[in-house]
């Protein structure tokens, strides 16, 4: 019921913004926007969100409470940020879903359709209150489209994860991993960085 209530509230707010107020987005309470923030139509920015300068937010994105976004970032259409911490100069393509607690450091690039998980337990309303063990993306890593990252995983700085991979183990810095489950196939060469 907990999740259902949150999403129901989200849909109600978006509907209220579109129909009743004749606006094309909803911005909640205690939201701080930096300079030159471009917000596309049908975006929902929930309460207690901080967004830095020069940020682009694509169509129909959902930014949940306590998300913090740095400067010079871009978020593709239909992306969901569930209370994440995002550094500067981060580019996240369309239709990504980043779970609560996810940490993304500076200069990270993420392709479309990426996802994260932040608990090792499947709740389904059984009263389990598992700890949040979200993944961390270290500085300047590159994530291909369709990559999934399981809970409590760290992607090392300057690493590359190939498209369609599922990351089940920590990835050291400057390594290339691909597959499901992802495995190291090479080191990142200095000229690539």
Descriptive account of the structure:
The structure is a single chain. The chain has 193 residues and is mainly beta. It has one domain (2-119, 137-192): UDP N-Acetylglucosamine Acyltransferase, domain 1 (3 Solenoid). It is built from 1 helix and 24 strands. It has one helix spanning 2-20, and strands spanning 25-27, 32-33, 38-39, 43-45, 50-51, 56-57, 62-63, 68-69, 74-75, 80-81, 85-86, 91-92, 97-98, 103-104, 109-110, 115-116, 136-137, 142-143, 148-149, 154-155, 160-161, 166-167, 175-179, 182-187. The strands form 4 sheets. It has a 9-stranded mixed sheet, with no helix packed on it. It has a 7-stranded parallel sheet with strand order 2-5-8-11-14-17-20, with no helix packed on it. Strand 23 (175-179) and strand 24 form a beta hairpin. The radius of gyration is 17 Å and the shape is globular. The relative contact order is 0.09. The mean pLDDT is 90.
Percent range for helical residues? under 10%
Q: What is the C-level CATH assignment?
A: Mainly Beta
Strand order of the largest sheet: 3-6-9-12-15-18-21-23-24
Low-confidence stretches: none
Radius of gyration: 17 Å
Sheet of most strands? 9 strands, mixed
Strand content: 25-35%
How many domains comprise the coordinates?
A: 1
CATH topology: UDP N-Acetylglucosamine Acyltransferase, domain 1
The succession of helices and strands, N to C, reads HEEEEEEEEEEEEEEEEEEEEEEEE
Structural class: mainly beta
| DSSP summary, beta strand count | 24
Task: Name the quaternary structure.
Answer: single chain
Q: Helical element count?
A: 1
CATH architecture: 3 Solenoid
Separation of the first and last Cα atoms: 45 Å
The average pLDDT is 90
CATH superfamily: Hexapeptide repeat proteins
Q: Give the overall shape.
A: globular
């Amino acid at each position: 019921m907990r999740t259902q209530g949150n999403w129901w509230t989200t849909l109600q707010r978006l509907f209220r913004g579109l129909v009743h107020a004749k606006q094309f987005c909803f911005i909640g309470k205690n939201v701080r926007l930096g300079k030159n923030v471009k917000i596309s139509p049908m975006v929902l920015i929930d309460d207690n969100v901080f967004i830095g300068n020069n940020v682009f937010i694509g169509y129909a994105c959902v930014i949940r409470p306590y998300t913090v976004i740095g400067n010079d970032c871009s978020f593709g259409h239909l992306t969901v940020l569930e209370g994440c911490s995002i550094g500067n100069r981060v580019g996240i393509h369309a239709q990504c879903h980043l779970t609560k607690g996810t940490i993304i450091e500076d200069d990270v690039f993420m392709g479309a359709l990426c996802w994260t998980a932040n608990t090792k337990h499947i709740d389904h309303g059984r009263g389990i209150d598992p700890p949040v063990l979200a993944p961390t993306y270290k500085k300047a890593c590159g994530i291909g489209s369709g990559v999934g990252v399981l809970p409590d995983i760290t992607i090392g700085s300057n690493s590359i994860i190939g498209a369609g991979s599922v990351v089940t183990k920590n990835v050291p810095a400057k390594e290339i991993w691909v597959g499901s489950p992802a495995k190291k196939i090479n080191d990142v060469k200095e000229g690539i960085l």
